[in-house]
Amino acid sequence: MSELITWTAAELAAKLAATEVSAVEAAEAHLDRIAEADGALHAFLATDPEVSLAAARDIDARRAAGEDLGPLAGVPLAIKDVLVTTDMPATSGSRILEGYRSPFDATAVARARAAGLVNIGKTNMDEFAMGSSTENSAYGPTRNQWGEDRVPGGSGGGSAVAVGAFEAPLALGSDTGGSIRQPAALTGTVGVKPTYGGVSRYGAIALASSLDQIGPCARTVLDTALLHDVVAGHDRHDSTSLDFAWPSMAEAARGGADPESLRGLRVGVVSQLMQGGVQPGVQARFAETLALLAAQGAEIVEIDAPHFEYAVAAYYLILPAEASSNLAKYDSVRFGLRVVPEGGGTVEGVMSETRAAGFGPEVKRRIILGTYALSAGYYDAYYGSAQKVRTLIQRDFAEAFVRVDVIATPTAPTTAWRLGAHGGDPMQDYLNDATTIPANLAGIPGLSLPIGTAEEDGLPVGLQLMAPAFEDARLYRAGAAIEQLIAERDGAPFWAQSPSLAQARAGKAAN
What are the Amidase domain coordinates in residue numbering (predicted)? Predict the structure, then answer.
């Protein structure tokens, strides 16, 4: 059944509904692929075949009994380890939560279960979602399936690689400053950050509460939309959850499958985001895609967003400040790791030893920065000023969306760099999120899809689309049309160009 894992989620769901394949067969095939490939890639932190196969058998039994199941029932799902689950550990990539088991499921996970998706495993990530390469995981880095010497992006590199390497057809991720979209770009997959509040954050281990958002990852725009439909919607457990009647994202994606739907679309290009720092191959693919859109009847409009250049600086004050507050709960007393000094010690001493041992260097760096930014005498100068910049960026978006329907940028300014290439310099990682961070600061939706490979290294390049808040469906419609244009240009869908495809079909491990 090696061919089974190369089907899209939509194709697999149709075959499951028609009983041409069983949920158990689907789960077994993907577990086999994980066993073959993940020793080299390390996309997963935890799998439990007994748990996954038991869930799959339940779906098969319910389908055989004539129960009306959801459209994705029986499809395997990889879950970023930032989301708590009752059936597998939730560590958020940190030693301080090693072995932690949650007594409840995150809302997004609970909705996926209710829809019949099968948890195939928990995916690797930068510790507490702090990073852009998945090198900051306490359990070792994930490697890009396009080249094992390359990073997959972060913080959700595990989820992106899981779908890109055919270890799972769908995955859930989280996006605080690009952690779904940037890995999608670097691995040649599709990832979406929904409108802030569009998907419940309940049960997501918090990093920065005003920025975090749960979202879907897949190999195609339609597959991503199908998962988005499952997890979206109001949740009374999340005070930031939006009570809004969301349209079907899958219907929007199907409506955009004809590139003719691009005719008349006003596409904004932010001049400030294209001034230096963009790899030539990324710039070339982006320009070619804009030309394809123009040839299809879209209108390309240059827009001015003067405050975008301050987005990274503002973000790296707001995020550490909120992280400092959120991570204070890891105190050695309530749950998680506890390190007791030799001979015992005070509560403060145990807490200090525990946090020193349990947190990695990047987490400590951001806690220190955030605590400083919130301290007496500095709050207004740093955190307060960053929030003012955030308001200016929101105004830039509001003014831009008067003139355009979507904004297009390269998702990341470069392709995947080599593991260890940044040499521990955090600024190089931070700047790789320059194009994705503004959407989080504004709370608007963003979608990344692959548009080709760079000449310099043959690695994937991603296109980011952003739309006004609540207009997630607009992104899926436009994204599906662009995806079709790219497939027509290349003669095949982008995922079919993946070096993992032949391996998956042959049942071979990554090499």
Answer: 25-475
